[in-house]
C-alpha cells in the first residue's frame, strides 16, 4: 500500500493505493451494502392508462397527487430532483390518477413509469 497526496480543485486529499502486479490481477472490494426495502406504492389499476415517464434519472422529492385524484393537463404530479435542480413533472393530459408507481425519496431511472393516468 502506498499513500499519495492528490490536489483536486485546490483541496488536498490523501489517497491510499494498492499496487496490482501481473501475477495478482484481482482487487478485493467490500461487499455491497444491503439496500433498503422500498416503501409500498399505491396501486389501483393500470390497464388502459397512460404512463407518465421520468424525463431523466433523479430522486423523487415530493408526490403532489394521490390515487383517484382528477388532474388537468399541466398540473404538477411530482417533483423530481436531478443534478441539484428541482423539476416539476406535469400531467400531459386531463385524467384521473390510476396508479402512483414511485414514492418520495425513491431514485428513478430515465423513462421509468412514475404515474398512470386514466
Report the CATH superfamily of the domain at 50-117. RNA polymerase II/Efflux pump adaptor protein, barrel-sandwich hybrid domain
Classify the oligomer. single chain
pLDDT averaged residue by residue? 82
Uncertain runs are 40-46
Proportion of helical residues: under 10%
What's the level 1 CATH class of the domain at 50-117?
Mainly Beta
- The proportion of residues in beta strands is 35-45%
Write up this protein.
The chain has 118 residues and is mostly beta strands. The chain has a domain of 68 residues: RNA polymerase II/Efflux pump adaptor protein, barrel-sandwich hybrid domain (OB fold (Dihydrolipoamide Acetyltransferase, E2P), Beta Barrel), CATH 2.40.50. It is built from no helices and 10 strands. The strands form 3 sheets. Strands 3-10-8-5 form a 4-stranded antiparallel sheet, with no helix packed on it. Strands 7-6-4-9 form a 4-stranded antiparallel sheet, with no helix packed on it. It has a two-stranded antiparallel ribbon with strand order 1-2. The protein is elongated, with a radius of gyration of 22 Å.
What is the secondary structure topology, with strand pairs?
Blueprint: E1 2-8, E2 11-17, E3 50-53, E4 58-63, E5 70-71, E6 76-82, E7 85-90, E8 95-100, E9 107-108, E10 113-117
Antiparallel strand pairs: 1-2, 3-10, 4-6, 4-9, 5-8, 6-7, 8-10
Amino acid at each position: 500500500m502506498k499513500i499519495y497526496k492528490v490536489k483536486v480543485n485546490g483541496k488536498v486529499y490523501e489517497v491510499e493505493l494498492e499496487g496490482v502486479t501481473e501475477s495478482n490481477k484481482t482487487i478485493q472490494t467490500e461487499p455491497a451494502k444491503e439496500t433498503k426495502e422500498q416503501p409500498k406504492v399505491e396501486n389501483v389499476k393500470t390497464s388502459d392508462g397512460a404512463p407518465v415517464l421520468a424525463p431523466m434519472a433523479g430522486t423523487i422529492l415530493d408526490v403532489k397527487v394521490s390515487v383517484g385524484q382528477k388532474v388537468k393537463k399541466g398540473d404538477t404530479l411530482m417533483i423530481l430532483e436531478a443534478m441539484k435542480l428541482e423539476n416539476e413533472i406535469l400531467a400531459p393530459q386531463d385524467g384521473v390518477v390510476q396508479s402512483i408507481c414511485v414514492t418520495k425519496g425513491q431514485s428513478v431511472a430515465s423513462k421509468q413509469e412514475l404515474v398512470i393516468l386514466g
